[in-house]
Every structure is written in C-alpha cells, then in structure tokens.
Amino acid sequence: MSNHNKSTEQALILRRFLMSTILFLFFLVLVLPSSSQKASTVFGDATLPDTSLFYSGEEIYQTAEAIGEDGRTFYVRQRITFDFIWPLIYAWFLYSSLSLIYRKSNNEVLTNSIRWLPILGLIADYLENALASMVMLFYPTRLAFAEKWLPIGSLIKWSAIAMAFLLIVSGIVVWIIRTVRGREAARWK
C-alpha cells in the first residue's frame, strides 16, 4: 500500500473515531440520563433483564409481573426505539476505538479479530432485546426458548462489551508506556 493510501486510511480511522466518540458522549451525557429517569419512573425498583449480567428465566417473569402491563408496554416500546439506536452507537464507538488503538499492531489476525467484539456485543444485545420484548408481549405465557436464551444473550453481550473496553484500556496503557519509553530513549541519544 502506498504512503498516500496509508495516510488516507489513517485519517479515515481517526475521523470515524472522532465522530463515534462525539456521538457516544452525546448519548452518554444527554440521552441516557433522560431515558434512565423515564425508565425508573415506570419500572421503579424492578431489575430489568438487560441491566444484569446473570439472571434466571424465572427472574424475567418476576420482572414482567412486577412492572405490570403499562411497564411491559413501555419496555417493548423502549427496546424498539432507544435500545435499537444505543447499541449501534456504542458498538461503533468500540469498533472505531479498537481500530484506532490497534491500527499499527504487527499481528493482523489479532487486530482483525478484536474489532469483532463490539459486533458480537451488538448482535447479542439485539437478541437479548428481541427475546425480552417477546417475554413482555406474551406475558403471562411462558416462552421456554426465551427463558433459556435470554440470559445467555445477556452474558455474551456484557462479556463482549467488557472485553472490548478492557482491550481499549490495555491498548492505551501500552501506547503510553511505549511513548514514555520512546521519549526517554530519545533523551539519551
């Protein structure tokens, strides 16, 4: 690849990172607090499936009972509006952050593999939202497949997101160490 193409690619990676970061921070600071406040008004102290790492199928139905019919309707509406957009935003942020941080890695297999973590988290989040919405829509009818797969989807989602954030933090730490070492070595030349 020519130097011009590499510099164009680097600029594109940086531009995507900046755009995704601005959008991510906008949602984090302005949209999420408002959405959380509305949800806590409707749901009260009920523990929702998509906010927990581990839960059982029985707990899903306890939540559906606790939030009532209006709560279940609000839950489904929130999943097909806000919770459709938010996973796209955080996945784009994580993907572009990993792409930026690991762009100069010597291990292409690793670099290309870790960028898929946010996509895996996104897919698992959508699976979780679809199954939880089905439970809420069909309550009190029990859906055995949803009881089984909803907790698994949540675990995959949270694991993929956590691993992506850990890789971002570790990549930043390595970059800082290399930068400091490089400056220190340059000082002695």
Short note summarizing the structure:
The chain is mainly alpha-helical and 189 residues long. Helices cover 84% and strands 0% of the residues.
What's the topology here?
Layout: H1 3-43, H2 57-80, H3 82-101, H4 108-114, H5 116-138, H6 144-187
Task: Write up this protein.
There is one protein chain. The protein has one domain. The two termini are 32 Å apart. The longest helix has 44 residues, at 144-187. The protein has helices at 3-43, 57-80, 82-101, 108-114, 116-138, 144-187. The chain contains 6 helices and no strands. The protein is mainly alpha-helical and 189 residues long.
Strand fraction band?
A: under 5%
- Helix share bin: over 70%
Head-to-tail CA distance between termini: 32 Å
Number of strands: 0
Order of helices and strands: HHHHHH
Average pLDDT level: 91
Query: Uncertain regions: pLDDT < 50 for 5+ in a row?
Result: none
> What structural category characterises the helix and strand content?
mainly alpha
Principal-axis shape: elongated
Largest sheet: none
Supply the number of structural domains.
Answer: 1
